[in-house]
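INFO  loader      accepted 1 record
INFO  loader      residues=338
INFO  predictor   begin
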Amino acid sequence: MTAKLSKLRWGVLGVAKIATAKVIPAMQQSAICDVAAIASRDLARARDAAASLKIRRAYGSYEELLADPDIDAVYNPLPNHLHVPWTIRAAESGKHVLCEKPIALTTAEARRLIAVRNATGKQIQEAFMVRAHPQWVKARELVREGRIGTLRSMLGYFSYFNDDPANIRNIPEIGGGALMDIGCYLVNTSRFIFEREPVRVSGFMEHDPKLQVDRLTSIMLDYGGGHAVGTCSTQMTPYQRIQIFGTTGRIDIVIPFNAPPDRPCQIVVDIATDFRGTGAETIELPVCDQYTIQADLFSRAVIEGHPVDPPIEDAVANMTCIEAIFKSAASGNHIPIT
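INFO  predictor   done
INFO  writer      dumping tokens
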């Protein structure tokens, strides 16, 4: 049936800000996405969001949306601890699922989704939208081509300030903290650029004494012949940057994660042998919305009947690294990735 669709009909679980402010408007720019319904546990909130975003149907429970036979796929932006339970329920209700990152709270929990995908035949993917952005695609292409020589190191920062105890990102039992919220991007993109899994990881964490979440986390991933190093924080000045270093040059991704949808993005390639940047070249990427591209790629895979890329196995591998970083920070030891 799905192979005959011209548009994928989407339902959204919840009225999270990322959904209403970024993902839904971006999906609505797609020629093959139809955001047909939105659900909230508060019907009034669902109706308000539907009216604001011109979505046809609003539901007062997630169950009602999953029971809608006219919904083909679900976008799940619920809090982290609800990702796996509602992704499973959606798939078992016959819906394909695009679920926000991080896909799960543990590796074991994430692995359940492989079995669910196999049993239901429904596509399930983790929503790391950055992988769809042309600036990341270009950066990996440059590394593959040897533009910066042999890849040796990747350095990343991602931070913002939020010490609100009521914010879900500051509640440890539901998956809050810097590593789960934004450090997962550093892990995911390093795996994207190195195109293999690390052999071991190390983590260092500083916890908020009241909130009990990691507010400052630094990581090192040993890829065997190359390292990725990164720092993330939820209580630091807002900043993000990625630098990729090779034996003969470097790539600088200026706005790597929150890429603006209304102006071009830039990456800098420097192959000079001095420290003044005399050999730097700025590559400008066309204006695009990475959330639109992400939705397009997922929808096209479902409509055309081929697997999503990356598959859910990639989400499990990413969660394996994250879990190992937590273990390393707690034990003070390097943790092998097996």
